[in-house]
Known about the structure:
Layout (H helix, E strand, L loop, with lengths): L4 E9 L2 E2 L2 E2 L2 E9 L48 E5 L6 E5 L13 E3 L8 E3 L20 E6 L2 E9 L10 E5 L5 E6 L16 E2 L16 E2 L13 E5 L6 E5 L13 E5 L20 E5 L7
Antiparallel strand pairs: 1-4, 2-3, 5-6, 7-8, 9-10, 10-12, 11-12, 13-14, 15-16, 17-18
Amino acid sequence: MESRNCTATNLVTIPLFVGLFVALLLGTSACFGDEDPPASSDVGVDADATGLDSGDDTADTDTKNEIGEPCFGPQDCVEGASCIGTGQNDQFVCMENCTEAGRICDDGSVCTSRLASADPICFTAGTTPRGERCDTNLDCEPGTLCFGSDNEYYCLQACHELDPGVCPQDTYCDTISESGKGLCRTRVGAGCTSSADCTDTLTCSEELGDAFAGLLPGGYCTQSECSADADCPGDSVCRTFPDTSTAICVATCATDGDCRFNADYRCLRDGYCNEVSNPEGCEAFRAGEDVCFPVALIENF
């Protein structure tokens, strides 16, 4: 079983409502592993657990608030939704109930588990954009999960083995847990041991000859024998790796989060320049797309 390092933090806020102190408890936790995203736990207690329920017997006759609208108690939301704390300024919002954590909700958010309840919800209160650093799934904007290793975690586009169609063109759903949770990854750059692991017409780097044997950690699905960027699938460019004479398609990136950083790949300027290899700066070193590059090869430059 995979070893994990789990951390937990609790935030207690006590607002004043007409002389009445109501304690609100919001807990978040994260279990970090190389193949699983941090487990989002309590994404905010239900409003009825905080004392915010007005107890008004006539509330059921009132117009119910739709999903995404503010609420003060469970009686405020339409059927199929719960009044959930966002963790932001003691705000509560109607969020859609769901049944299977990790599945993609109709609105594109992720069905998220909670510590405060056995019932998951489609959590929509995260604000950290895709590709940016995060601590837990609660940080990430709807449709993304917080994933990483070695204290590097990024909000990445989520998918599920039962919902692979949410991934953009030229990407695929890379399943990262037994529950079916996954992340959208570029087809070029996927890990492999043979070409059978790659999609479409791509080839595993382990089958490109002795020059590539063991060169790219965990294998690398690619298109070989390219001569220009236009020869490569979307989100990839044509580059020649050191000590090889064969140009292959490599995945482009904007941040380390776009790369298989748990397999020691990083987003580097054209694959040949970073602060270690060129402390004077990379801007003038070589123009071009940033690409995912093995950390172990940096020392060669």
